[in-house]
Amino acid sequence: MSFTGYTALLLLLGVITPGYTTDPEECNFTKKTAENKDYKLTVSPKTLYNNTVYTVNVTGNGNESVKVLLQALSNNTVVGNWSIPTQSVDCSGKPLLNFTFNANNSLFTNWTSPSSSIPDSVDINVFITKENVTYTLSEKLHSSSANAIFPIHPLSVFLTSLLVITSKLL
């Protein structure tokens, strides 16, 4: 078999070989999704800065046990770090919690943005599985540079005004 024949065979094997994941079984959420009516996600602050701690709050109904998967993505890549209890399971950088909404109906956790090279935006995603149904919550954070309006320097305003006045006098 020629070099191109081996290359084609390797490419074919790469295409038809199933993907392998090292995630625990708990990380495989059901694909059955439903409209979210019972849960709410809030993230604070709303603007994305580097090396900043964000409060992530998920509210739900009292006294129900659920699985909660937390995810922070930028360009389909996991970014930042979650501050979560030690009883969580690591699902490729996305913590999975077995959680019971109690009387206050809230799950509070923290996410810290990357310390350098802040992306333009990050999607904070929460997947809640209850009785084999998954509810999805999402909030997008935009970096301050993506929202920036560059200030006008006072000297440029003065020079522009002087130019306009001078042109009227001529």
Q: If helices are DSSP runs of H or I spanning 4 or more residues, what is the number of helices? A: 2
Tell the overall outline: elongated
Q: Assign the CATH topology.
A: Immunoglobulin-like
Task: Give the N-to-C terminal Cα separation.
Answer: 84 Å
CATH structural architecture: Sandwich
What is the H/E order?
Answer: HEEEEEEEEEEEH
Helix content: 10-25%
Summarize the structure.
The chain has 170 residues and is an alpha+beta fold. 18% of the residues lie in helices and 41% in strands.
Topology:
Elements: H1 3-16, E1 40-44, E2 47-48, E3 53-59, E4 64-74, E5 77-78, E6 81-83, E7 89-91, E8 94-101, E9 106-112, E10 121-130, E11 133-143, H2 154-169
Parallel strand pairs: 2-11
Antiparallel strand pairs: 1-3, 3-9, 4-5, 4-8, 4-10, 6-9, 7-8, 10-11
